[in-house]
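Quick start: read one record
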Amino acid sequence: MTGQPTFRDRDLERTALDRLLEGVRVGEGRVLVIRGEAGVGKSALLDYLTERASDCRVAHAAGSEYEAELAYAGLHQLCASMLELRERLPAPQREALETAFGLAVNPPPDRFVVGLALLGLLSEVAEKQPLVCVVDDAQWLDETSAQALAFVARRLLAEAVGLVFAVREPSEARELRGLPELMVGGLGDDDARALLAAALPGRLDERVRDRLVAESRGNPLALLEVPRGFTPAELAGGFGLPDVTPLPNLIEQSFRRRLEPLPTETRRLLLTAAAEPVGDAALVWRAAERLGVGLGAAGPAEAVGLVEIGVRVRFRHPLARSAAYRAAHLHERREVHRALADATDAELDPDRRAWHRACAAEGPDEAVASELERSADRARARGGVAAAAAFLQRATELTPDPARRGARALAAAHAKLDAGAADAAADLLATAELGPLDDLQSARRERLRGRIAFARLRGNDAPPLLLGAARLLEPLDAAQARDAYLEAIGAAVFAGRLGSGGVEEVAMAARAAPPPAAQPARASDLLLDGLVTRFTDGYAAAVPGLQRALRAFREDDDPRWLALACRVAPELWDDQAYDELTARQVRLARDAEADAITQATGSAPLLYTALVIAGWRGDEARASKLIEASAQDAHARGEGRAIALTGYTTAVLYNGLGRYDAALDAARRACEHDDLGLLGSSLIELIEAAARSGEPEIAADALAQLSERTQSTGTDWARGVEARSRALLSEGEATEPLYREAIDRLERTRISVHLARAQLLYGEWLRRENRRVDAREHLRAAHDLFSSFGTEAFAERARRELQATGETARKRTEETRGVLTPQEAQIAR
């Protein structure tokens, strides 16, 4: 916008942007997320960046709350002018990008591949000229675009690419958390008064001025906009100033006041521009023509600085757009959306046209609902699950026929759950129940009810619901029945000791599952059969089948069962499969951390990782708080597996601290139930705690249980921890060969923390045998490994043992935390 006051009090922010540009110009990838409340000056800083980047190629995009459900809409804004370079990308990436943008019809693209394609595309552009990507209102980006951009932002290294996002706070957008940030606050009082004086020349009552400065909290847009619309007399005495209200409301009210005196045609043009979120001026004018609005209507709005209309439409601020839209009556909005739908090319942009038609609908309309359903199919094909859910939800609302409305509500509920919106899925499920459903739809409804229950609580209410759904599906759809049985077993695994009938009962019922329809069997089919055997015929009988399932999962891209497969891998002591599958799970989850997912989706809290890390680190205060909170929450929700995990974590914590009696109590609690993927690890802790607490019989019984598992699989991980555990209970000449076997086997695995544990135990034994020189070698190796892992309690235990041999190891402190040992330096390299 022209004629605005210049920057005040933004030296630090401009310096940060200048440094970002300096890095990009020398070929360094840079990222910055600018955060601040509405009107604080984020967009002005982006304008400053754009002006300073005159020697760079600059690409723009802006999120819109009216377009947040359209898959890859933001990405298309940013990259539309770059797509001619997609031919340089590897074929899988090119195809994923073309599918995401609707340029080709292929299976839905993996979001990881789309992210790689975007990274490759931006890198290709930057080969010719440094590239700066500017994304305003990133809190309103559609989910798929936000995830792809966050993926790229975390992987920029030596590319001459800068990514700068502006996010309005407070914001629920989580994808950009953890990236470099620049918080933009209000102006200081002196600069705020100066800006207010520039906006309101002439004498201003001092008390009114102080109130405006105080209520604006230094927000530049508020200082410029809130006083507008008041007469000099009102400002002189303050009689027209509004009561204290939230700042965005104050600013929007100011924009509304500026709209009121404008001509009717101008307000209608602004409403049309506000309802068209992309800012396509040609489309706005085509719609305006259908509404009888002439070209002269823009003049009054541009004269008062509300909007600029050139090649694109640009409002002074998103709150100005909000004001233009919300100030209109409902019938006026519908009329504008109808004109926009008519002006939108049905071939080039069918989804946006469908959305405008939906916004224009005054009641149920099957034609519009069918169009939205087709848009949902296209969104799903591009990988836009959230967009598909939004289209289907609106299609449900517009469907006149009860039977068809029930079917669409069921489809919408499935899509909402897949998008992580369990509460919205439950609401749509209630809608589906109002309409007549056939037998298959009714069975799918019951399965969805169980899935929603599991997503919300992961407790003991989900297994019976899923089991009942599986039985209903058996005569109707074999593949869906098998999937429901597998979901029921997975839910029962989480319910654990708090489940009503236990996972064994669910597995026994799942024996009735129909045989796999597809040949060769899907990875999930193999997993189901293996788990049924595991919980009905025992561990040893299940090993061959579960090993086949893991081999299949290492070649399978279906993410639905990945979490369950990740729990089977440690159950079989298969470190290679565990490494590959967990790496894939990390890749899928990289764009949003567990806490962010939990808060965004309303799912049950997932404290597993934080809990286990706290136990291994040996931070008793933090770990104890997490353990207590997790145990209470698990009991409340009926998630027995989490109780086992708290026992295991407590045992690790106290074994590390050398408090073996406490570790023994915790490990015994953890081993009371056969929790998938946890019992073997808990037995290891129980053996060490019992051996060190003078309870050899308890340790021997635990070793017998452990050996049944380790002998059945025979992997180096399994045999290594067995040899280490057996050495703890051995005496005389038999002991040393067992420790050496343990170290030899564990050195060949990826589970380095167990190697460090073997080195520690062997070093402790050697010291007690008065072989101090030999002990130092293994204790030093253990200390260095534990220190590099951050497992501080075990590192301290190794340090004390080293000290007892006559060698001093450096104790890690806050001052020395950043200084690496030689081995740590090697690991870092």
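The longest strand covers residues 161-168.
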